[in-house]
Amino acid sequence: MNCRESINQADRPLEEALLNDWHVVATSEEVVPGKLVPTMLFGRELVAWRDSAGQAYVWEDLCIHRGARLSKGFIQSDRVVCPYHGWNYDGSAQCVLMPASPNETPMKKAKAIPHHVKEAYGFIWACMGEPANDIPAFPEWDDPSYKKVVCGPYEFKSGYRALENFIDPTHFPFVHAGVNGIMDQPDPIGAYDVFEKNGGLATSEVQVTQPYGDPREVPVMAYYAYQCLRPLVAYFKKRVVITDPERASEGSPDDRFCTFFTAQQVDETRSIVRICCAMNFSPQPTDADVRRRQDLVYAQDSAIVNTQRPERIPVDLRMELHHRTDLLGQKYRMWLRNMGVSYGTV
Amino acid sequence: MELSDSQRMNLRLTAMRYGARDILLYELEPLDGSVLPPVTAGAHLDLHLPDGLIRQYSLISSLCDAQRYVVGVKRDAEGRGGSRWLHDQARVGQMLEVSLPRNHFPLSSAQTPVCLIAGGIGITPIYSMFKALQQSGRAVHLHYWSRSAEHALFHRELENAPDVTLHFASASGPQSDLQAVLAGLPGETEVYACGPSTMLDQLESSGLGERLHVERFVSAGPVMAEGAFSVVLARSGHEYVIPPGETILNVLLEAGEDVLYSCEQGVCGACEVTVLEGEPVHGDTVYSADEHTRRRSMMICCSSSASPRLLLDI
Ligand code: FES
Ligand code: FES
Ligand SMILES: [Fe+2]
């Protein structure tokens, strides 16, 4: 068994559904060449870094020599230098220099513990096991008619609860009163369909009234089609129709606002949410406009979601009370349960 | 009249009149001539029927007064027993326990024009609204879908009225008719609708937003079988008898079967299971009976069986 396998088996092993999946551990922007970025996934301490050619790496934050924390070291000539005895690791994670014995070729086993890495949609993704799937699709990313803005990080306790909140339109009038809903006139949420799609869950459109429905700050009727792509990745494509007749001419029937949502489950009760918004209407808002609005909305969300108890989400439906309007959240919990996801759940 | 704490009244069934094919009008009066609370258009009441069934029926407010409440009930052979009891067993002279009228479907007080949409027995609250709006002088047009003239309640009053369009089963189908009606609506018109859930679903997805007001007939609790039936769990082969008055969910839970549920009232969808054989009678409001047929599923917390045996994929 190599080091990576033995770490993966340590204590309580992470269930395969999560271990063999891709998870966002940083935004691309956060990991700049020359810097060691400590990060954490499922309670495992990791370090992310980038070489001068732009290649990103995610390793265990651990030197194989005596277990020092690599993120406390530094980068020199595209090598990670351990802060304790100065061992040098190159991009293949191989130790190429032991300063205490400079002329000796380091042993083959002197290797940092690397993980699979992909960079996509403005995020750095890692898989600590063996990838069972590709990272989920985000079609608008490759569509030049869409402007993309990465937002976050936003801190939440449970990433699953944060995701469930993301796919729940019934909280809009209360948590986002005046922005995504109207508190005095909450929309009754009509029956919507939840179906399986590519191994995930998807819904038919859910209609809600939004007084400031998108960064243009116009009142819209919004039609959300949601998807749960992975246990900690979700998405919606929102069709927006301007309801103010005076401003209706600003809109087009093809107007869409999409959000690709990711949660990094740091440990059982801490997570970091990062999103990428994609929109195709004009005039295009500035990046700062989009972020200002998302920062507000996600701050409103985390203020409530972080009060939810238990902090670990119950995947047994009996433990909380569901309603027909929560059908997607409910199917999400069943889906997690059927996948055997137990980390961060009760 | 003194109202009890639970706000129920004992009223006598004083008349049953023919309304339309399969629809009867029931009149209820207080015994002592006391004054009944007033009824507004869109209101309904609960009828407590023998066997513990509680059913909601819309009041036909234009026929109600301080001495009499009137409800219209359609006999639903596939239904959950309330309408069958009223049609087949109820007798004039009987006493029935009745709740106070409640209105979850009130008309707004705006002066905008109104479009009323009724499907089938959904005409009962809508007709009340129609009368109330006409009386108040507000612009209104009623669209009423039914199978045929014979099936249409108040057909005689409505057939030649200028602000009424009757729609009978047509070749183009109700969906496209409804679409055409909506397409012709002036922008500020408010829409009130009551009818089958497919119709209401279509309305809700038609972008009317706040201008749309619908009333759905909601489940009043579990459908209890009138006779026992058996449930076979296909994966384990376990077989259980569900006695009258029990739910499948309760019997399975008591036997220690691991089944999912949450609301136990037919509104959440947690207890949905696949039906491999047999004919469930659905009591939930998550999906329509048609949708259940398509999904081959049932909610075991609140549904029963028309066949002696159900084979479930559990
Ligand atoms: S209202 Fe739903 S959690 Fe509080
Ligand atoms: S438990 Fe909620 S529908 Fe059956
Ligand atoms: Fe929110």
Automatic annotation (TrEMBL), chain A:
One of its GO terms (molecular function) is iron ion binding. The keyword DNA-binding does not apply. Gene3D superfamilies: Naphthalene 1,2-dioxygenase Alpha Subunit, Chain A, domain 1, Rieske [2Fe-2S] iron-sulphur domain. Keywords: 2Fe-2S, Aromatic hydrocarbons catabolism, Dioxygenase, Iron, Iron-sulfur, Metal-binding, Oxidoreductase. Pfam families: Rieske, VanA_C. The keyword Nuclease does not apply. InterPro entries: ARHD_Rieske_2Fe_2S, Cholesterol_7-desaturase, Rieske_2Fe-2S, Rieske_2Fe-2S_sf, VanA_C_cat. Residues 22-126 form the Rieske domain. This is (2Fe-2S)-binding protein. It comes from Halopseudomonas pelagia. The lineage of its organism: Bacteria, Pseudomonadati, Pseudomonadota, Gammaproteobacteria, Pseudomonadales.
UniProtKB/TrEMBL annotation, chain B:
Residues 6-108 form the FAD-binding FR-type domain. It comes from the Bacteria. Keywords: 2Fe-2S, Flavoprotein, Iron, Iron-sulfur, Metal-binding, Oxidoreductase. The keyword Acetylation does not apply. GO terms for molecular function: 2 iron, 2 sulfur cluster binding; metal ion binding; oxidoreductase activity. InterPro entries: 2Fe-2S_ferredoxin-like_sf, 2Fe-2S_ferredoxin-type, 2Fe2S_fd_BS, Beta-grasp_dom_sf, FAD-bd_FR_type, FNR_nucleotide-bd, MRET, OxRdtase_FAD/NAD-bd. Residues 229-314 form the 2Fe-2S ferredoxin-type domain. It holds the Pfam family NAD_binding_1. The keyword Flavoprotein applies. Coiled coil: none annotated. This is Oxidoreductase. It comes from Halopseudomonas pelagia. The lineage of its organism: Bacteria, Pseudomonadati, Pseudomonadota, Gammaproteobacteria, Pseudomonadales.
